[in-house]
Amino acid sequence: MDLLAVHQTSVRIRDECCDLLNHEWPRSRALRMRTIDSSRDSLPAVFALVAQGGDGVVLGTLKMSPIPSDPKAVWIESVVVHPGCRGKGVGKYLMLTAEKKAREEMGYEKAYLSTFDQQIFYSKLGYSFCAPICSYGGNIALKGNLAEGIRRQGQDNSAPKTDKTNHVQPKPTPPFPDSGAVPPAPPPPPPPPLAPPPPPTPAGPLPSSSNSGSPSEDISLQCAKVFSRPSLPSQPPRLEKMPRRLSPSRDIVKTNKDSICRAVLSKDFMCKRL
Ligand SMILES: CC(C)(COP(=O)(O)OP(=O)(O)OC[C@H]1O[C@@H](n2cnc3c(N)ncnc32)[C@H](O)[C@@H]1OP(=O)(O)O)[C@@H](O)C(=O)NCCC(=O)NCCS
User: Fold this and answer.
1) pTM summary value
2) Angle CA 122–137–61, to nearest 5
3) Paired sense of beta strands 128-129 and 110-115, if any
């Protein structure tokens, strides 16, 4: 098995990566191919784990991108193994080979990723939970600051403006409207007293909120139990039967698992020192 940067391979390998990704997370082929075709040496790059010295079927793929806020760290995403060879060590081999490449050939010291539902797989590879990171530049805290800025700006815009440059005095409001003799409505009655606070919720694992960076207690415990830092095996996993190439028309599942995941599950961020 060889891990190849797709821009150094054939159209066939790029197509297979596209089919593999779309089998898992159906999306427009044109958009997928745009990402795949943007692969380059200096990252972002899409990698394919290819059987039989690069001539065989694509067994897995992932994408590595730089993190502008941390030049020593790499962002790993779109990790997928061919459905015909899952649970046989291919995912582990794909990840460890990619990490070795990032460390030894590109000089990265840390890898970050996010996941909805594969926390255990990544914990078994040495990843631990971390604060959310913005993979496209800057810490996610910046997003909070941006939101705060927009909120403040909104408040500023809605607040009455005093024009200090023109010195125009605001027109005084007449005591009653010009149009008729109807006096203004009386002020509304005071609101009813507040309802008593709800009873305290029973103690238990808290669900992590989306992108919060704090996994649920349950998943944290499970991950802590299986955490390990395996080294790259000297030999790739042996597959008794090579899976066949996915057929875009026959094998692409129409359900968008990606959007289901996003709607139901929260995303956790994980990182590993390479
Ligand atoms: C997640 C995925 C890449 C794992 O690849 P794989 O080839 O099946 O994984 P491996 O066989 O190499 O598993 C390595 C270890 O992780 C464990 N593992 C893998 N997936 C797991 C899961 N979903 N839950 C718990 N453990 C898991 C394996 O049991 C194995 O443990 P071991 O080392 O103790 O034997 C693959 O299942 C996949 O492509 N899934 C769909 C796409 C996806 O969810 N990608 C991740 C996006 S964040």
Assistant:
1) 0.76
2) 40
3) unpaired
CA nearest to 269, candidates 133, 114, 76, 110: 114
Task: Give the Cα-Cα-Cα angle 200, 217, 147 (nearest 5 degrees).
Answer: 80
pLDDT tens string 90-121: 999 999 999 999 999 999 999 999 999 999 99
For 193-203, how does the pLDDT look when each residue is reduced to its tens digit (9 = 90+)? 555 554 443 33
Ligand 1 centre and the CA of 119: distance in Å? 9
State the closest ligand 1 atom to the C-alpha of 226, by its place in the atom list counted from 1: 34
Residue 258, phi-psi category: left (phi > 0), alpha (psi -120 to 50), beta (remainder): alpha
Measured in Å, residue 96 CA sits from the centre of ligand 1 at: 13
Question: Are 36 and 30 spatial neighbours (Cβ–Cβ below 8 Å)?
Answer: no
Kindly give the pairing relationship between strand 128-129 and strand 45-50.
Answer: unpaired
Q: Which residues line ligand 1 (CB under 6 A)?
A: 24, 79-81, 86-92, 115, 118, 120-121, 124
